[in-house]
Amino acid sequence: MTQLDGRVALVSGGARGLGAAYVRALHGCGASVVIGDLLDEEGTALADELGERARFVHLDVTSESSWAVAVEAAVGLGGVDVLVNNAGIANTGRIERYDREKWDAVIAVNLTGTYLGVRAVVPVMKAARKGSIINISSVEGMRGDAGLHGYVASKFGVRGLTKSLAVELGADGIRVNSVHPGFVLTPMTERLDATLQRIPLGRHAVPDDVVGAVLFLAGDESAYVTGIELVVDGGMIA
Ligand code: NAD
């Protein structure tokens, strides 16, 4: 089992859904966790439930100053060993109805939010000469999909940003990888088309199906792994 005793992980969008599953798993492996999210009530409840080694901070990933507060909370717990850039939103529409507002919103949270998270933690990780950045992309960052234009573009962007950072930051001891979940049952996917025909394993994922990928990339088992796309999709893009 992954050992993360004495490490600190910061998880954006950690109050519910996949983010909360990553928080619970990282904490269960011994890490201290900072849960960053817009959802104060859910985030505070999760931090209270986990108790020692868990903090909630109100985080808007589109804001540089908000990231500074989250990083400060992590440094207060000992540093930032792991950043999981998980916060994300999705919206849909055929291109004629996919207006500028939708585009801007999804790019701001999913892509710019990831970029700002990296910028916020890199000075701390560089000073420590270690760190693992895990950017949550999607199976939609591996292939096109009708009606999900901004989401797909943002997730391809996250994948590209990840690769570029892996090349740049390797010499500083910082690893950067992306995780690409398939169709996972969470509040985000409640209203999306959930056909099983595209999933060879024959079922939708639950958040715990993706946790192992994040733990692997967070811990020392992946010490020589950087710049990869870890796809956890039940075979959707096989
Ligand atoms: P979710 O909607 O359940 O959770 C997303 C979390 O991000 C929420 O807690 C939300 O409050 C938070 N968030 C949204 N905007 C934010 C902002 N500006 N600042 C801080 N927090 C913000 O969604 P989920 O399904 O758990 O998705 C988590 C991540 O996994 C997303 O990046 C999503 O794109 C990705 N993903 C999900 C699936 C899936 O099938 N559910 C598949 C592939 C990738």
UniProtKB/TrEMBL annotation:
GO molecular function: glucose 1-dehydrogenase [NAD(P)+] activity
UniProt cross-references to InterPro entries, sorted A to Z: NAD(P)-bd_dom_sf, Sc_DH/Rdtase_CS, SDR_fam
Keyword tags: Oxidoreductase
Recorded superkingdom: Bacteria
Family from the record: Belongs to the short-chain dehydrogenases/reductases (SDR) family.
Organism from which the protein derives: Cellulomonas xiejunii
Leader sequence segment: none
Coiled-coil zones: none
EC numbers: 1.1.1.47
Protein name in UniProt: Glucose 1-dehydrogenase
PROSITE patterns (alphabetical): ADH_SHORT
